[in-house]
Amino acid sequence: MRILITNDDGINAPGLEVLEKIAAELAGPDGEVWTVAPAFEQSGVAHCISYAHPTMVARLSGRRYATEGSPADCVLAAVSDIMVNEPPDLVLSGVNRGNNSGENVMYSGTIGGAMEAALQGLPAIALSQYLGAATADLANPFEAAAAHGASVIRRLLDHGDWTSDAEFRLFYNINFPPLPAADVRGIRVVPQGRRQGSNFTVVPYTAPNGRRFMWAAGGSQTAPARAGTDVAVNMDGYISITPMRADLTCHKSLPELVAAFEDEAV
């Protein structure tokens, strides 16, 4: 198996090192692991691409490359240039430092990398490690992802929907709970949730020269969410798997809205 890995925490992030080991185990001795990751941290860039300016790509060694762009840029660089003659069989994005459950999905560069791979017709999985009090003192805070990542992906490859001719190909979002590996309770396949009363905000700051700046600030990551969603099961000790696609249409709302407008003149 030929696997492409990327992330949004940057080429030197510890989570990427964890993912390299997971990918090597999945690829096997006869497989290949290619790394194309941002040269510096790209957290919060979602699915953005460097459309308005060029992006430098540097080969660091062998099958390891760094770009000055986003995770989606990294995937584009891989499939359109670096691996154009031998595309990957699977794209893995992560392991993110911190969860990408709930509303975090909409901001996540880790998700953006997996989404771009799916739009390119490739099987893709995003992986993130929830952090908390129980992981703070671990020698490896990514312990749960490191211990369970390969086996979860194998099961997902066997049982997931990998239809290649779908209009919007599915990709998958995996979040590991904020626990030591031995304390993980199992796996749950669940929808995306949303933390109640927790939103991104900004913190204003005035520099010594009088100019106004702002820092983006996340909300509480332990705020409750609806039962049976990714946030809820992660907080309850389970690995979450959520099937996703790059289609933001609210299909439930379409029929009533169509009926309201179809006979109306402009």
Automatic annotation (TrEMBL):
* Name of the gene this protein is made from: surE
Q: Which family does it belong to?
A: Belongs to the SurE nucleotidase family.
Protein name in the entry: 5'-nucleotidase SurE
Q: Where does a divalent metal cation bind?
A: 8-9, 43, 96
Gene Ontology CC = cytoplasm
Which UniProt keywords are listed? Cytoplasm, Hydrolase, Metal-binding, Nucleotide-binding
Chief subcellular location equals cytoplasm
Q: Which cofactor does it need?
A: a divalent metal cation
Entry keyword Nucleotide-binding: yes
